[in-house]
């Protein structure tokens, strides 16, 4: 029986994944599943660069603005929901598009999560005390010492990720990066990974300009409206945590915006480190022409099973 095909569009923040995903979805007359964990939240449209209304109308999208920041949503639940959605979509389409820069969420869909132990209450309590007394920087330091490879790619501002990784390392005596490097049983669909690449200078310039555009489009008001939720995990992310410091009078606005740009560039660097380790990504250059796109379609056709 012919396998269904999942085309996964990957790359760093700000590189243009949404446009490519829509171009592919329109060509294959299919739908898009997002694996961008920040775009799940409906209250965070501007700061996460969620697809615009025009983009959402250009192709059906799933897992965009489907949750509230007040809802807790785990990567395990996402894996289950995404696979259920893919099953549904594959009953109607031979090809579906996956897109997003949340590396572990893409991995959850295309390979599956790993059979890791449950959180250890003692470890979690100890780590929470470290976080409360010495700050997230201490957790970053511990993880960097225990597992420098995972430290390079994890969102170091997400304390949940740090707590989880350190807990697993303490429990198993193995690096967290070693645990997640082991592939699970293959999926029953064919995976084709497409990336967009650009020079570091070009990428960073795009990121800086995108942050300026977010500010013009009302990011400050969006963050202000979410200030009462600033303790929630969903809001502990680039573009929001910096502006909360502005509202708390810790930073002035220009400095907060410059920190958003800097932290966005740092996140892009971690994404690039992650994707460089993969040998199954077919790259398209930023600013691709129609001929480049047709060449890509020809290459994709050769990968279909």
Description:
It catalyses: adenosine(37) in tRNA + dimethylallyl diphosphate = N(6)-dimethylallyladenosine(37) in tRNA + diphosphate. The protein is an alpha/beta fold. It has two domains: 4-113 and 184-303, 3-Layer(aba) Sandwich (Rossmann fold), CATH 3.40.50; 121-181, Histone, subunit A, CATH 1.10.20. It has 14 helices and six strands. Strands 3-2-4-1-5-6 form a six-stranded parallel beta sheet, sandwiched between helices. The mean pLDDT is 93.
Chart the SSEs and their pairings.
Layout: E1 4-10, H1 17-28, E2 32-34, H2 53-58, E3 61-62, H3 75-90, E4 95-99, H4 103-110, H5 121-134, H6 136-146, H7 148-153, H8 159-172, H9 176-181, E5 189-197, H10 200-216, H11 219-225, H12 241-247, H13 253-276, E6 281-285, H14 290-303
Parallel strand pairs: 1-4, 1-5, 2-3, 2-4, 5-6
Helix pairs in contact: 3-4, 5-6, 5-8, 6-8, 10-13, 12-13
How would you concisely characterize the structure shown here?
This protein has 305 residues and is α/β, with parallel strands linked by helices. Helix content is 53%, strand content 10%.
- For the termini, the CA-CA separation is 10 Å
* Count of discrete alpha- or pi-helical segments spanning 4 or more residues: 14
CATH C-level class of the largest domain is Alpha Beta
Task: Return the string of H and E elements.
Answer: EHEHEHEHHHHHHEHHHHEH
Strand content: 5-15%
Radius of gyration: 20 Å
| Count of discrete domains | 2
Largest sheet: 6 strands, parallel
CATH architecture descriptor of the largest domain: 3-Layer(aba) Sandwich
CATH fold field value of the largest domain: Rossmann fold
Low-confidence stretches: none
* Overall average residue pLDDT: 93
Quaternary structure: single chain
- Count of distinct strands: 6
Described by the principal axes of the CA atoms, the overall outline is globular
Main sheet: which strands, in order across?
A: 3-2-4-1-5-6
- Going by helix content, strand content and strand pairing, the class is alpha/beta
CATH superfamily of the largest domain: P-loop containing nucleotide triphosphate hydrolases
Q: Roughly how much helix do the residues carry, as a percent range? A: 40-55%
Binding site for ATP: 11-18
EC number: 2.5.1.75
Pfam family, one: IPPT
Protein name: tRNA dimethylallyltransferase
